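Proteins fold reproducibly. Next comes a concrete instance:

***
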Amino acid sequence: MKNIFVLSVLCSCIMLGSCTTVAPEAGEEGVKVHKPWVFGTGGVDMTPVETGLEYTWLSTDYVIVNMLPQAYDEDLDDATSNDNTLLDFNTQIQLQVKDNMSPVLVKNYGVNWYTSVIKEVYRNTVRGYISKYGPFDLMSNREVLDSINLFVKKDMQSYIAMLSSKQGELPIDVVNVVVGRAIPNERQKAEMDATAAATQAKRTEESKREMLVAREAAERQRAIADKAYQEELGLTTDQFIQLRAWEIIKDKNGANIDVLFNADGTNKMWNVRR
């Protein structure tokens, strides 16, 4: 009896020493990959390990698969619009592994399934739709971006269905696609800043010219009016200048000022006091 007990304890120790555990948390599934030392067959165990604790042989590897929607961010640099403008984009595709299908995913496409069969197809699909629109729409038209999101999502769903039919089931759902507003890259920003600066400089110069023309026109009209006024009063040039000086003093509320007139082309300076 004692020998049987010792043998049982010994067997238990050997078994426990040859075991490991798989313990997926909530929202995860465990996939066992058998690698027997001597007996049995290897490969992916097609029954997923759900939340909890499960013992398995030490020779068995396991993979934890997140079953919740996962967001994969893809930044696109120098994407080309329909007029060959280079723009940058922040994009995201959200994918989810179908329930109880993690073993199928690992068996058919491995642990790095996103990088191997999804990533580049997604990036190229987004670039393709970007090339159909102009920079202004890509930077500011929300309806255009929403359309791109919808088109890319449908294309990725079709691609996954095609891959499933030809290479083995790819148990992935496309939850959402988000393509952000276009961001001018550094070179494009520099060109836009230079264009904006040149445009502003041109507008400023045009405004200055318009003001100068308007001032010259006003001065000509004033000179004509002054000449007519002088003739109407029958004043000499000096008399008229004196009259205008007194008018300025009146406007300035009795200030002691120097007044420069060029009515007769002599640039005379008058210091006028009340």
Observations:
- Residues 14-66 form one domain.
- Helices lie at 2-17, 102-109, 113-130, 135-140, 142-167, 186-233, 237-251.
- The chain has four domains: 14-66, 70-184, 188-229, 235-274.
